Amino acid sequence: MSTEDGTEEAAGGQPASERPVDGMFSETRLANRYGTPKPGMSRRTKTILASVAGAAAVGAAVFMAIPTGAGTVTSKDVGFTIPDASTAVVDFTVTKPTDVTVDCAVQVLNDSYAVVGWKTVRIGPAETGTVSLSVAVRTDSLGVTGGANACWVIDAEQ
C-alpha cells in the first residue's frame, strides 16, 4: 500500500521500513525475553521514605549532640622540659570524675612533628576532680615539645 508521499505503509498503519521482520515490536521482544519491567515506586512512597530518612537523620544528630555527664575527661598541657636527647618531662592536668580511672597518652614530638616519645599513664580515683601530673618520657631523639595527646575512661572490668 502506498501513501501520498510515496512511502509504503503496512496494513497496521506502520511504515514498512520500521516494521520488524517477524512482526514483533522491540518492546514485546524484550518483555518476552526478560519479563515485563517492574513498576517504580510511586511518588507517595518516595515522599514517605524521604521523610522517614530525614527524621532519622535529625534524631541521630540530636542524640549525638546531647552531652553525657558521666565519664567526661579533659586534659590541659601545662608545660614541658627537655633535659637531654633521650628524656622529656611533660606537665599536664587532668579533670575527671573523682571515682573513675583514666589512661592518658603522653607524647613528645621533634621539630618535624614526628613522635619521638610516647607513654601511657594511668590515673586512679582521686579526692579532687583535677589532678596535676609531671611525667618523664623516654625519647628516641631530641624532642622539642610534649603534651597529653588524649585521655579516656577505663572500664571497671579491666
In short:
20% of the residues lie in helices and 35% in strands. The protein has 158 residues and is of the alpha+beta class.
Description:
The protein is an alpha+beta fold and 158 residues long. Helices cover 20% and strands 35% of the residues. It has helices at residues 26-34, 43-65, and strands at residues 74-84, 87-95, 102-109, 115-123, 130-138, 145-153. The strands form two sheets. The chain has a three-stranded antiparallel beta sheet, with no helix packed on it. Strands 4-3-6 form a three-stranded antiparallel beta sheet, with no helix packed on it. It is elongated, with a radius of gyration of 37 Å. The model has no long low-confidence stretch (mean pLDDT 84).
| Tally of strands | 6
- Radius of gyration from the alpha-carbon trace, in angstroms: 37 Å
Largest sheet properties? 3 strands, antiparallel
**What separation lies between the terminal Cα atoms?**
93 Å
Q: Determine the number of helices (DSSP H or I, runs of at least 4 residues).
A: 2
Structural class: alpha+beta
Percentage of residues in helical conformation = 10-25%
